[in-house]
């Protein structure tokens, strides 16, 4: 079976998100008001062949732990749907 | 009103996603099989004060055009929900 898999990787709560801070500052400088808690993360999408949905999700979880996410400062959310 | 706003910025179809290619190559090198079309994008989240949902979405759209996305090579999807 072929799946569309997605991993959303974001900074952990409480970890200083320097990118988010920089974006927030620049947006405010550009005149945008009323914004706070700007956080910048990554989204990785792929097509993935797997036995079933659970196997696909398990593979993406392992990919996050092996490469895509830094467990110390980031968390990740995985979603898988049939292609 | 306070909103949670999110912009997902991904490479346009047909544009060479060098980051995606590098991740795909590394994952394959790590032994992962059956994956293709790996694409890497950004996700920006924020809390945003706005008159209503439309105003919040409009503001985030302008932020994408002003700063968050490179219109030539990237597309963006915006979602807004009440906090």
TrEMBL record, chains A, B:
Pathway: Purine metabolism; IMP biosynthesis via de novo pathway; 5-amino-1-(5-phospho-D-ribosyl)imidazole from N(2)-formyl-N(1)-(5-phospho-D-ribosyl)glycinamide: step 1/2. It is found in: Cytoplasm. It catalyses: N(2)-formyl-N(1)-(5-phospho-beta-D-ribosyl)glycinamide + L-glutamine + ATP + H2O = 2-formamido-N(1)-(5-O-phospho-beta-D-ribosyl)acetamidine + L-glutamate + ADP + phosphate + H(+). Its main location: cytoplasm. Keywords: ATP-binding, Cytoplasm, Ligase, Nucleotide-binding, Purine biosynthesis. GO terms for cellular component: cytoplasm. One of its GO terms (molecular function) is phosphoribosylformylglycinamidine synthase activity. Pfam families: PurS. Signal peptide: none annotated. Its EC number is 6.3.5.3. SUPFAM superfamilies: PurS-like (SSF82697). One of its GO terms (biological process) is 'de novo' IMP biosynthetic process. Belongs to the PurS family. Part of the FGAM synthase complex composed of 1 PurL, 1 PurQ and 2 PurS subunits. PANTHER family: PHOSPHORIBOSYLFORMYLGLYCINAMIDINE SYNTHASE SUBUNIT PURS (PTHR34696:SF1). NCBIfam families: phosphoribosylformylglycinamidine synthase subunit PurS, PRK05974.1. Part of the phosphoribosylformylglycinamidine synthase complex involved in the purines biosynthetic pathway. Catalyzes the ATP-dependent conversion of formylglycinamide ribonucleotide (FGAR) and glutamine to yield formylglycinamidine ribonucleotide (FGAM) and glutamate. The FGAM synthase complex is composed of three subunits. PurQ produces an ammonia molecule by converting glutamine to glutamate. PurL transfers the ammonia molecule to FGAR to form FGAM in an ATP-dependent manner. This is Phosphoribosylformylglycinamidine synthase subunit PurS. It comes from Cloacibacillus porcorum.
């Amino acid at each position: 079976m072929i799946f569309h898999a997605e991993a959303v990787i974001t900074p952990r709560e409480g970890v200083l998100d320097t990118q988010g801070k920089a974006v927030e500052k620049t947006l405010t400088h550009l005149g945008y008001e009323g914004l706070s808690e700007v956080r910048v993360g990554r989204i990785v999408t792929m097509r993935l062949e797997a036995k079933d949905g659970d196997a696909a999700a398990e593979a993406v979880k392992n990919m996050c732990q092996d490469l895509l996410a830094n467990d110390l400062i980031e968390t990740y959310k995985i979603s898988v749907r049939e292609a």
